[in-house]
Design goal:
Strand content: 5-15%
Radius of gyration: 23 Å
Largest sheet: 5 strands, mixed
Number of strands: 5
Oligomer: single chain
Order of helices and strands: HHHEHHEEHHEEH
Structural class: alpha+beta
Strand order of the largest sheet: 3-1-2-4-5
Number of helices: 8
Helix content: 25-40%
Amino acid sequence: MDSATRYAFTLVELLVVIAIIAILAALLLPALGRARESSLKASCLNNNRQIITATILYADDTDGAYPPRTRGMDHGHPCWPGRLLRYYSNTGLLVCPSDRKIPPPVSGTRQVHPADVAPRSYMINGWNDFFLAPKGLPFNDQILFDRAIRDTDLDEPAGTIVYGEKNAESAHFFMDFMEGEGNAWQELVWNMHNRNSQAREEGNSGGSNYSFADGHAEYIGYGGTFNPVNLWAVLGQYRRLAKGN
């Protein structure tokens, strides 16, 4: 046979090559997806660390007081993103990279401070039990208005959540677990990261990132912030009243 003779793929050979490429893609894509999600989760965790660091720096300048509960600049005072802005500088830190991109996650609607209206994936603890339970009061936003907890009020800072990840559609700034059925169920996202394809239907896989009063941030699996301990609560009796999965 002439050495210059060129061989062409037969249809069968072409189909075999396509099938091999499809198999390799099917094997590689899940691994690439997991690697990408691990990167996004790590970036979100870094956001949490920087936000809680900003909060601690703010508290250092205010006699240990965390940002008080406010209703925004239309009532004369910025909410926590605006109050902390000088300590974290870049409002991009308020968005988890795993959160939706188009449209971006909702923030406040009545605020005029640029940080308060910036897209936001996180919400701060509303400290409901600390301010309401000793007086035997149900959830009441009017009573909570302008209240600020201090770092010295927290007996277990390493086990008390300050920030968690919210629903993209939620405009809430504060996680009030005593409001309605509980903002933990209505406003938080328990599985922003590592959720499987059935998570939206089953709602029991993956987890989210949280930052704590001692300055650390960590990933906690679905339901782990309420069972066996309610990590959003301050008072002992409420920390033990954890809701299971």
